[in-house]
Specification:
alpha+beta, HNH endonuclease, 2 strands
Length: about 100
């Protein structure tokens, strides 16, 4: 019997070995997270994380899988991606967030 696939820390779907995947630093490397904790995520989920928040925001506000799942844009994305197969991948919908100062 084969071992179960690891689970994506964002969408909580299985991550098959052939699915595009990567390790997400919970605190971005440039914000002090080098050598810090990482979590396995689908590549599409990783792209969406970085399209949804700046590195400063990720370090300060969205630095756990639980808080990431409560981010408004990511919550919508998770609801959408959970309806897709575990190996689904496409370009990040909606594009990158604008980083203009407010």
């Amino acid at each position: 019997m084969s071992e179960p696939h690891p689970i994506c820390a964002l969408c909580e779907r299985p991550v098959p070995p052939d699915a595009p995947q990567s390790w997400h630093h919970l605190v971005p490397k440039l914000r002090g997270g080098k050598g810090g904790p990482t979590v396995l995520v689908h590549q599409i989920c990783h792209n969406e994380i970085h399209a949804s928040a700046s590195e400063a925001e990720l370090a300060r506000l969205w630095n756990t899988p639980e808080t990431l799942r409560t981010h408004p844009r990511l919550a919508k994305f998770i609801a959408w991606i959970r309806k897709r197969p575990a190996d689904f991948h496409s370009k990040t919908p909606g594009g990158r967030r604008s980083w203009k100062k407010r």
